[in-house]
């Protein structure tokens, strides 16, 4: 069965990623905050150029209901999406007019949030999944005091090196899957496009390279000829500054402003595991409105969820990695549809 949940705009950001491009070298220079401001400008320009999407004309007469805007993303978008939501909120407040961007909520999957929580979560996750011995885990806890991102002493650094040695040959995106060599490693970067696909164990990753670099696909997508070279899944060569170091306080601000939020994690992702995500959510000191429980798709457990005050929903996606929709698209679509409609997972 095919059903429509929402209209979706997929945006390649920052400039230079995906099929996006700039007309000058300076245009490729970006940062977290610059990317957010460019996204706001883009969304406003796009909606002015496509006014039919300003109103929810699928269900209600355009003059009666303004379309709701939700912003969301995966992985490093954990830094961008909350910052973008807050930027839109502030811009709407300062305009003094009816806002063009009718922000109603945001969502983030497998999100990068704060190195303290993310890194500590990895160590706890590795131990919980049986990748570290009890002795090594306790040694690391004792000597690092929870600070695994910036070792405070030699014994902590030693324990972190031992943890790295234990996990270096694990597929960090999904610990049950075979390891796929990072596509930005020097050896892969020296390979031809054909050889790149042969190094990727994921069928989806192989197909994405073939698909996105096919001339017919680019023509169908309206990609302007000569604007981009080879499509890359993750381009590490872009001139980019990471100037947002944590979004925990931004999440807290958005909670106070009352924006609904959906945060979710693939439960086999060790890059930004659910353990760290749950830890920073707990740091917001929100009260529970729904106890930890399973949620279902087609009668099967699809993950576990908990709801908090100020309209925050957290969910794990069972069997998914980094990122969750890549591994469990059906379950993630159902999760998104329920949350968007205001129904409990």
UniProtKB/TrEMBL annotation:
Instruction: Look up the signal peptide feature and give its range.
Output: none
Q: Which GO terms describe its biological process?
A: proteolysis; secondary metabolic process
A Pfam family this chain is assigned to: Peptidase_S10
Taxonomically, the superkingdom here is Eukaryota
Which GO MF terms does the UniProt record name? acyltransferase activity, transferring groups other than amino-acyl groups; serine-type carboxypeptidase activity
PROSITE patterns from the entry?
A: CARBOXYPEPT_SER_HIS
Q: Supply the alphabetized keyword list.
A: Disulfide bond, Glycoprotein, Signal, Zymogen
Family designation:
Belongs to the peptidase S10 family.
The identity of this protein, by name, is Carboxypeptidase
- Per the UniProt record, the source organism is Triticum aestivum
């Amino acid at each position: 069965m095919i059903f429509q949940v929402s209209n979706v705009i997929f945006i390649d950001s920052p400039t230079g990623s995906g099929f996006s491009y700039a007309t000058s070298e300076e245009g490729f220079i970006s940062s977290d905050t610059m990317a957010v401001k460019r996204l706001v400008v883009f969304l406003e320009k796009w909606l002015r150029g496509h006014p039919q999407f300003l109103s929810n004309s699928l269900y209600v007469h355009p003059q009666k209901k303004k379309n709701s805007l939700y912003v969301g993303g995966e992985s490093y978008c954990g830094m961008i999406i909350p910052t973008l939501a807050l930027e839109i909120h502030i811009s709407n407040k300062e305009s003094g007019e009816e806002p063009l961007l009718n922000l109603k909520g945001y969502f983030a999957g497998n999100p990068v949030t704060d190195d303290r929580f993310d890194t500590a979560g990895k160590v706890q996750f590795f131990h919980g999944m049986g990748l570290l011995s009890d002795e090594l885990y306790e040694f690391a806890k004792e000597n690092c005091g929870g600070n695994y991102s910036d070792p405070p002493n030699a014994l902590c650094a030693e324990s972190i090196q031992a943890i790295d040695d234990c996990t270096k040959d694990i597929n960090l995106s999904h610990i049950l899957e075979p390891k796929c060599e990072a596509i930005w490693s020097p050896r892969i970067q020296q390979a031809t496009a054909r050889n790149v696909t042969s190094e990727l164990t994921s069928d989806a990753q192989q197909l994405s390279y073939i698909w996105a670099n096919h001339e017919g696909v680019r023509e169908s997508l309206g990609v302007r000829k000569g604007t981009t070279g080879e499509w890359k899944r993750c381009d590490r060569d872009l001139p980019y500054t990471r100037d947002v170091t944590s979004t925990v306080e931004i999440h807290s601000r958005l909670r106070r402003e009352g924006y609904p939020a959906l945060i979710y994690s693939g439960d086999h992702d060790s890059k930004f595991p659910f353990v760290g995500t749950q830890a920073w959510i707990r740091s917001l000191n929100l009260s529970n409105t729904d106890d930890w429980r399973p949620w279902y798709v087609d009668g099967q457990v699809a993950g576990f969820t908990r709801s908090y005050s100020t309209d925050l929903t957290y969910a794990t996606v069972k069997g998914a990695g980094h990122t969750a929709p890549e591994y469990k698209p059906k379950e993630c679509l159902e999760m998104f549809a329920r949350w968007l409609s205001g129904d409990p997972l």
